Amino acid sequence: MTGRSLTDHDVDLEAYALGLLDPEEAVVVAQHLEACALCRNELHRIEETLGWLGTAVRPVEPPPTLRNRVLAEADPGDRRRWRLAWAWGGLAAAALLLLGVLLLAVTRLERRLDEFASQQERIAAVLARADWSTVVQGEGAGFPPEVGRIFVDRGGRDGLLVLGGLERPEAGRVYQVWLLRADGSRVDAGVFLPDRAGSALLLIEAPDDWTRYRGMGITVEPGPQGSTEPTGQRVAGCSWDWSAWARS
Question: Is the pTM of this model over 0.85?
Answer without folding.
Answer: no
